Amino acid sequence: MTDPLLVADLSESQLLSRIFPLLPHGQATIVGPGDDAAVVRAPDGRFVVSTDVLVENHHFRRAWSSGYDVGWRAAMQNLADCAAMGARTTSLVVALVIPPSLEVEWVTDLARGLADACALHGAAVVGGDLSGGENVVVAVTVHGDLEGRGPVLRSGARPGDVLAHAGVLGRSAAGLALLEADRSAVSPGLVESFLRPAPPLDSGVDAAVAGATAMLDVSDGLLRDAGRIAAASGVVLDLEDPYVVLAGDVAALQPACEELGTDPLSWLLTGGEDHGMLATFPEGVQLPQGFRAIGRVKGTVVETSDRQTWTGSIPESPMTVMVCGAAPTVDGPGWDHFAG
Amino acid sequence: MTDPLLVADLSESQLLSRIFPLLPHGQATIVGPGDDAAVVRAPDGRFVVSTDVLVENHHFRRAWSSGYDVGWRAAMQNLADCAAMGARTTSLVVALVIPPSLEVEWVTDLARGLADACALHGAAVVGGDLSGGENVVVAVTVHGDLEGRGPVLRSGARPGDVLAHAGVLGRSAAGLALLEADRSAVSPGLVESFLRPAPPLDSGVDAAVAGATAMLDVSDGLLRDAGRIAAASGVVLDLEDPYVVLAGDVAALQPACEELGTDPLSWLLTGGEDHGMLATFPEGVQLPQGFRAIGRVKGTVVETSDRQTWTGSIPESPMTVMVCGAAPTVDGPGWDHFAG
């Protein structure tokens, strides 16, 4: 048996020559990888752009995640940002930092995961940058096409709108908890939700077409992200009883709840990284396939003193997610990348 | 005296609220930072995109570079990629990884450096992502507008074309050498070239307008990057005597050469990160302001056996930068991010 080939054994161009052939092409690509920059079509004279980074030992551990998992997740969390604007992803670029001691196979595996996630949605990888570093860092920037529609922002929710969600909730957090407790055998499906999330990306475009007034993808937890819509729109969101409207998720979390002695509500409301689409629709609109109504947009709040701040405890159900006015974010439970 | 405020002392949203106001707006921005994604104008139905990453202890050391320096450099190396396509930068996004022990002032200083470099060229910062990590990583993705022109690729050089360069050569490498030898007082100007490069970005657009047939920015050294044009175009590049055509750079490097006992040729030919524009122009074209002719495109090479590989030594002057055909890169001196 020979020693595995390491990043340090190859020159940058040798490594790139193993990665480039794995990357998917796309119809929007005019100039692909290999020059100073790529050139991408933006048919309606605008493009959507977002960037998201995954950092080893902060967002993933190599002991749990394969290169493929990390590449898949890096792509998916970015594709979800694009979808949440109502855009179809055309292309992405990747800045990859890797330690010289890393196996080359891990890097090509990452490229395969990234490529498969992109290819599933017709997105091309049009460029990248490679650097040495102490830990793996994957910074992806994604570009989307609004196809002539207006972008669906966080700020458009209006009183009377229906709050709806497509995708799953709490699964990624439950999967992570199982991994941390070394109990992944209890529910490989939940662990898979953490390692390779499968957000309903088409639902983002469907929601935009159906006339969604506000949308985001749930990356930091339902409460925190609903709070962002509420804050940006200056409205109050009333969430219906999660045990009723999210019964499917409650059931899916049950094996992990029993194993770890956890209440499902914490994962449902504050678990991040499932990247479902949370959107508001005008009353009477038929919700696109995949969306379920989970609440209602209530009247506008004018007094900032009404602002309710969570500090980690889960409010009683039924609850009110209430954030007002100008505050761009809500201090509540959910993911904070600098908190412990 | 109070202890400096650290990243760990703030929540993510508190930190972002200190960064957002520092970022420059731009005329191409339709939706700026704060939503899932930004929306940027692409008036001619295409956009140019490139990504480049700076990693602590690989591309910079915090002992030498201030936050401002790192932000400036991260922006400039990306702006240069856009310029080298003949595009005007409209916008960029930034993924920033920072250790919790970092001072908040260092981070806001980085934002100021990034902002100043962008504002100088009318580019907006339209989005970003922030994460904790062991070391600072700054991954910037830049977008440019070709204003109806075709992109200037590496592959368009034709026999008879003039090879020309705008900007400086060897300065950044000499500045780094002075820092490494703890001799920065010998030439603060050279050290500044390393810490805050000032590439001639307008020259990229000027070259495109003047009809440049091929172009890139010199980020990995003149020989290596000229080799990339030669390889992509399937031509041979004859560089004239550097002591003649690059006399200004030779003179500028002199103080560092004397102090460190170095020959300027090594820095001139293999020193990277000055980000000057290296372009080829049809014979007879008047070179845009800032460009100096440094060589000539010779006949097409058809035999790959003609390929000349450098392994670190500097060829005799006058020399031939000769790389042929299909090989996407040249193995030669210059920057390799995984080499020692």
Automatic annotation (TrEMBL), chains A, B:
Binding site for Mg(2+) 5: 220
UniProt-annotated binding residues for ATP: 128-129, 154, 219
Name this protein carries in UniProt: Thiamine-monophosphate kinase
Pathway: Cofactor biosynthesis; thiamine diphosphate biosynthesis; thiamine diphosphate from thiamine phosphate: step 1/1
NCBIfam families documented for this protein: PRK05731.1-4, thiL
Binding site for Mg(2+) 3: 36, 81, 217
Keywords, ordered alphabetically: ATP-binding, Kinase, Magnesium, Metal-binding, Nucleotide-binding, Thiamine biosynthesis, Transferase
Family assignment from sequence similarity: Belongs to the thiamine-monophosphate kinase family.
Binding site residues for Mg(2+) 2: 52, 81
Residues annotated as domain PurM-like N-terminal: 34-144
Classification via PANTHER family: THIAMINE-MONOPHOSPHATE KINASE (PTHR30270:SF0)
Annotated positions binding substrate: 59, 273, 335
Pfam families associated with the record: AIRS
Enzyme class: transferase
Catalysed reactions, semicolon-separated: thiamine phosphate + ATP = thiamine diphosphate + ADP
Name of the gene: thiL
Note: Reaction mechanism of ThiL seems to utilize a direct, inline transfer of the gamma-phosphate of ATP to TMP rather than a phosphorylated enzyme intermediate.
EC number(s) per entry: 2.7.4.16
